[in-house]
Amino acid sequence: MSLTFKVGLLFSVVVSTTVLHAADPVQLTRDGRLKLATAVCSAGREVVYCELANPTLYRLMKLNMQHRTSQPLHPKAGTSEFDPMFAADGKSYAFLKTVGVLRAAILIHDDMGNKLGEVAPGGGFSGLRSPAIAPDRSRVVYSFGEGGRQQLFSVKPDGSERQTLADTPGINNWPAFSPDGRTIVFGSSRDADFEVYRMNADGSVPQRLTNSPGQDIRPKFSPDGKRIAFTSHRDGNAEIYVMQADGSHPQRVTHSLERDDYADWLPDSEQLVIVREHDGWHDLFLVNVPARQ
Question: Has residue 156 got a pLDDT over 80?
Fold first, then answer.
């Protein structure tokens, strides 16, 4: 199937959508609890994810990929934690933590769990989302509601030197750095429907990468920087797609009757960990991503 769409106002791109045929997904967890977000770490040996522990508490869990066992990442955490994201080298990570009534902060830890920094822009927790650490750990990018818009900001790990990266109508969310730190991909509803965009790390030269009738959200660069995985609703339900880093050759990877979401890459750039929802159960699965056809 071929689609022609406009990129910016300058030129048109013809895109062929291909369905990838891979081995069946491998189930990694079997407890069925509500899960949100995945973050591969420890050179692919572990996956951190967010889980609903009880009706009032979200906690970060760490899955051992070899033994398929999970345990709390922060056993002593007494408030909700969510939206984990590791730096490209795996030596530090960021996450959101509730720090008061309807308030949240971004915490940055090293891989031993030691606190490196904190970003607390204020406002309600519902407006603070999706922290991402630059590969050199010099900046943290996040989504935050300010002035009636959900925008992207960049700060140093201590919260200083804030820069606005995206200030547009609609919602800008789910930022993720390229492995070299020069590019950020994100989802935006600036053109009414959610689509995937890319821009330079300083916010310049934004470029729309997708154009589909459904939402395209939660993009992640592959570790080799060649492809982007994202969640798309273009086929009527949430499925995982991959495309080239320039937005070309979008390819459907998963085939679920309900919902596949929250993809993150393993270091080989050939596999993804996802959250699959089926009959009210939510579990992690491992999905193979063949080379582009």
Answer: yes
Give the whole-angstrom CA distance, residue 117 versus residue 106. Answer: 8
Q: Which two tokens stand for residue 205?
A: 């030269």
Domains, the chain, ordered by start? 2-288 (2.120.10.30)
Distance in angstroms (rounded) separating the CA atoms of residues 150 and 252: 29
Cα–Cα distance between 68 and 165 in angstroms, integer?
Answer: 39
Q: How many CB atoms lie within 10 A of CB 32?
A: 13
pLDDT digits (tens, 9 = 90+) for 216-261: 999 999 999 999 999 999 999 999 999 999 999 999 999 988 999 9
DSSP code string of 1-53: -EEEEEETTTEEEEEE-EE---PPPEE---S---EEEEEEEGGGTEEEEEEEE
Distance, in Å, from the CA atom of 110 to the CA atom of 181, rounded to the nearest integer, reads 19
Identify the pLDDT of residue 149.
86
The end-to-end CA distance of the chain, in Å, is 14
Residue 278 tokens read as 């089926």
Q: Which candidate, 290, 256, 292, 249, places its Cα nearest to that of 274?
A: 256
Question: What is the rounded distance in angstroms from the CA atom of residue 266 to the CA atom of residue 38?
Answer: 11
How far apart, in whole angstroms, are the C-alpha atoms of residue 203 and residue 54? 38
d(CA 104, CA 82): 10
* Residue written as token pair 């935006």: 188
Residue 36 phi/psi, 5-degree rounding, is -135, 125
266 in Cβ contact with 40 (< 8 Å): yes
